[in-house]
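Standup notes
- DV: blocked on the single-chain target, sequence here:
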Amino acid sequence: MESRCQHQRSIAKFQRFLSLVAICGVLFIATIPSAAAQSQLYWVGQLNSNWSQPNWSPSTSGSPSAAAPGPATAVVFAANNVQSTSANINSPTTISSLTFNRDSQVSIASGATLSVASGGLSASNGASAISGGGALSTPGDMVKTGNGQLTLDAKTFVGGTADIQLGTLVVNGSLLASATRVQSLATLVGNGAIFSPIQVSGTLAPGNSVGRLTVGSLQLLAGSQTQIEISSSQSNDIIVVNGDASLGGQLQVAPVGGHTLAYGDSHTILVASGRIQGEFDSIVLPDS
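- DV (later): unblocked, structure below
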């Protein structure tokens, strides 16, 4: 029977990347297994096809053949950037990351879930959406990248911070996170509800055209832009803050739908359950 030291040495020899290991007073060069390599699959199915069917390909020009992606798979839609497409999810699904390259949609059915393990959501260009009665989730931070627009109509649960780094994120459903950050090159839009404190360095534009966005406590940093549209004397964008609001940056006011602002007009653009502190650094009105 081999000794314990011999057994430990034999185990050390069959690992996969180099490390120094001291066993029984002897220094060995051993190897340790690395994490599994991430794979990538491209959606090549028809409009409104089922996610779980073999509508995937390992290449942008391949025919549908591969099985549905798993937890270590980076998923790409409209990879050739020439046509929009859509997929339907009807059961619990986990992937590594999700990239939209052009006007595509993922629909999550009621009772189904889509978990994005890395939290990476990218919309390179165009306008894409994640919709349906099901739920989108990330176990940790959610990071939105790419210069395109991504609309979240589905319920979204973020295990950490929702970090909007580039492009536009439209929240028309609900988004629950520990915090939400809108970076300087990003825009947050929508008619939904965000259950977290929000810090804005970029652009905040409530509504889809004229509408209402509900948020947790709000901090508008210097250099940020808050865009408010007014369509009539009784209708305009509004931000509902469940907490304190700290104002800063630039307020940009734009009449839409043929409406004209008149001297003496009064519009409520923000209400808060807590305190409203500070003021906008500048206000831009039409023709100003």
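- Follow-up: Confidence is low (pLDDT under 50) at residues 1-37.
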